[in-house]
Amino acid sequence: MRKKRVLLLSEGFGSGHTQAAYALAVGIKQLNPDIQTRVIELGKFLNPVLGPWIVSAYRKTVSKQPKLVGMMYRTNYKRSLNRFTQLALHRIFYTHTSQVIAQLKPDLIVCTHPVPNAVVGRLKRLGLNVPLYTLITDYDAHGTWTNAEVTKYLVSTPIVKRKLMAHGIPAARIEVTGIPVHPTFWTTFDRNEIQRQFDLKPMPTVLVMGGGWGLLQDNDLFEYMARYREKVQLIFCVGSNEKVREQMASNPLFQHTNIKILGFTREVSKLMDVSDLLITKPGGMTCTEGLSKGIPMLFYEPIPGQEEENCEYFIRNGFGEMLDSRQTIDKWLTLIQEPYATVQFRRTLMSKRNQQYNPEQCSRAVLQMMQ
């Protein structure tokens, strides 16, 4: 008997969309090894020249003109992708996507980004007979996610479900599953072993993340943070941003045995386990990973739009607060030096997590469709 197949389509606009796709794929395989999964970043796969160029242009816009990104997000909040955009996607992707689907013969397609969601939706209007699930990877529901051909939406919270309903999506087509994280975030690693692996000391530790693109730009706050280096260990993850890594490595303030500057790493789960505080850009994926670990979070420089909505959700639910002053740094870097307070706070967050989040729920929702 042929094994059932799930095709997961993403895009490289930030790392979170594709991370969610891989996390869901691995979660499905762990629950049912007989299911075949395939993850594809559609633009890069189908157009290896133009796709990465578009992503690079978007990355520069996010970095240099975040207010413009926010204005575009809000202006088009209630709108699905317009006809011009759909025509452009048709020219670039539709025919090739149809060929890929015909070759892979999936029993279910899951999209973790609005672009492939629109592409597959159009193919369904043209006769494609494959169920389409759409996994929204933030704590907001922008209109570009909406598509009449979606069989079911998988969303992070009841709030996002209500927002989708306000866009006209029937409640029966929306399931609250949480955003999936890789199974490594479901377990706890041995702290001593992690410290040996990364040459870390057994002392209060802060993990600072700039997302997959390494957007660490507020040098004043990070330099002020470095003044705690005798009492607090600092781990900076700058992702693929080699320029930022070189700038920080050449700064005398960061040249200390208690400061680690890391590039891209697949060991974020371990680094969260060994850390007492996470300072991060509020991407939906990173925030959910922090939630799964029950680590307190400080959020800095949210991109106007979905990252602001992510911030609002996690702050409102007591999982973190905004990093907007030196006083906030003083407060938290002093707090984590008190072992009892640190343990108690993390226990509280783990209890909240257990009440609000089941890491397997999204995978189980997909598997239920496959039965």
UniProtKB/TrEMBL annotation:
GO biological process: glycolipid biosynthetic process
Organism: Paenibacillus sambharensis
Matching InterPro entries: Diacylglyc_glucosyltr_N, Glyco_trans_28_C, Glycosyltransf_28_UgtP
Cellular-component GO terms for this entry: membrane
Superkingdom: Bacteria
Key words, A-Z: Glycosyltransferase, Transferase
Organismal lineage: Bacteria, Bacillati, Bacillota, Bacilli, Bacillales
Domain spans labelled Glycosyl transferase family 28 C-terminal: 205-329
Pfam families to which the protein is assigned, alphabetical: Glyco_tran_28_C (PF04101), MGDG_synth (PF06925)
Location of the protein in the cell: Membrane
Domain Diacylglycerol glucosyltransferase N-terminal positions: 17-181
GO molecular function: hexosyltransferase activity
Recorded family membership: Belongs to the glycosyltransferase 28 family.
Name this protein carries in UniProt: UDP-N-acetylglucosamine--LPS N-acetylglucosamine transferase
